[in-house]
Automatic annotation (TrEMBL):
Protein name: D-methionine transport system ATP-binding protein
GO-annotated cellular components: plasma membrane
Species this protein is from: Arthrobacter subterraneus
Functional summary from the UniProt entry: Part of the ABC transporter FtsEX involved in cellular division. Has ATPase activity.
Cited InterPro entries: AAA+_ATPase, ABC_transporter-like_ATP-bd, ABC_transporter-like_CS, ACT-like_dom_sf, MetN_ABC, MetN_ABC_transporter-like, NIL_domain, P-loop_NTPase
Secretion signal, residue range per the UniProt entry: none
Keyword set, alphabetical order: Amino-acid transport, ATP-binding, Cell membrane, Membrane, Nucleotide-binding, Translocase, Transport
Domain ABC transporter: 2-241
Length: 326
């Protein structure tokens, strides 16, 4: 559904050329949710502007459902942009308009008949659970309710793609959960393709099917959550499943273990203790379900008369990803 190929964006600052995006390539299947993560200055905002044609890329292509948006004429940009619904960090509602009037605004801009506007607004407010707040002004709504109005407004043009730019970073944890649940539900209900720009790993873990790490304008890691977390040495996988602070060990050899799928539920450490006459102390650990797969990341201290190389070879043979801790 979304295909970005060799996207590049440069700016001129005096005599200097600044590269904000450098050869960005990614593909997001229809009906899935893809996360773009990165620190401040990584190029996330520039990517959003290029995807929505608020900025023309210097080179490269953005294709949505077979149509290359980056090839449309300037006179066709507004029509092409309607295929992308935009949800912002702050809802950016018009204070002088009610919730219903805010949702109606994009429909009014394209001169939709009044009866169709009223019907569509009622449908969308019902979809986001705000029917009873149709006549409320933004000052009368909570942060989560405002964001729901913003989502309904983004869906008014029946877009193929929903682009969410930091959609929950201004919300409290409970409201964040509600909004993420809503986005996930709408993805299935409306068969949307969703791109989430965020710096919050919790958002990625909660709703995304796949993820890309953007750094200095380049995508340096990319893939389904299971593949990303399973990748050896990947910084994105460690960020998605960080180890909590553990106790100080006793100077014995330490291993960092990543267990995936069935291995995460298998009695690997018990078998290790039995086979190698080993004492195994778990210093830190976490177990989570990401992208439909169960993962366990453990840092363990091992005391055994057998060589460490034999122990790591056994664990690798059992399907465990092993790193000897520094």
């Amino acid at each position: 559904m979304i295909t970005v190929t060799n996207l590049r964006k440069t700016y001129r600052q005096g005599e200097r050329t600044v590269t904000a995006l450098d050869d960005v390539t990614l593909s997001v299947p229809k009906g899935s949710i893809h996360g773009i993560v990165g620190h401040s200055g990584a190029g996330k905002s520039t990517l959003v502007r290029c995807l929505t044609l608020l900025d023309r890329p210097t080179s490269g292509a953005v294709v949505i459902d077979g149509r290359e948006l980056t090839a449309v004429r300037d006179s066709e940009v507004r029509t092409a942009r309607r295929r992308i619904g935009m949800v912002f960090q702050h809802a950016n509602l018009m204070d002088s308009r009610t919730a219903a009037q805010n949702v109606a605004h994009p429909l009014e801009l394209v001169k939709t008949p009044k009866t169709d506007v009223n019907r569509k607004v009622a449908e969308l407010l019902s979809l986001v659970g705000l029917t009873e707040f149709a006549d409320a002004y933004p000052s009368q709504l909570s942060g989560g309710q405002k964001q729901r109005v913003g989502i309904a407004r983004a869906l008014a043009s029946d877009p193929d793609v929903l682009l969410c730019d930091e959609p929950t970073s201004a919300l409290d944890p409970a409201t964040t959960e509600d909004i993420l649940t809503l986005i996930r539900s709408l993805t299935h209900t409306l068969n949307l393709t969703v791109l989430v720009i965020t710096h919050e790993m919790h958002v990625v873990k909660r709703i995304c099917d796949s993820v890309s790490l953007l750094e200095r304008g380049r995508i340096i890691e990319h893939g389904p959550l299971r593949e990303v977390v399973s990748q050896r040495g990947g910084s994105l996988g460690r960020s998605l499943m960080p180890l909590p602070a553990g106790t100080v060990g006793e100077g014995l050899p330490e291993l960092e273990l990543l267990l995936v799928g069935d291995t995460a539920s298998a009695p690997v450490l018990s078998e290790l203790t039995r086979r190698f006459d080993a004492n195994v102390n778990v210093i830190a650990g976490t177990v989570e379900t990401l992208g439909g797969s169960r993962f366990g990341r453990l840092r363990v201290e091992v005391d055994s008369p057998r060589p460490l190389s034999e122990i790591t070879a056994y664990l690798e043979g059992a399907g465990v990803h092993v790193e000897v801790a520094a």
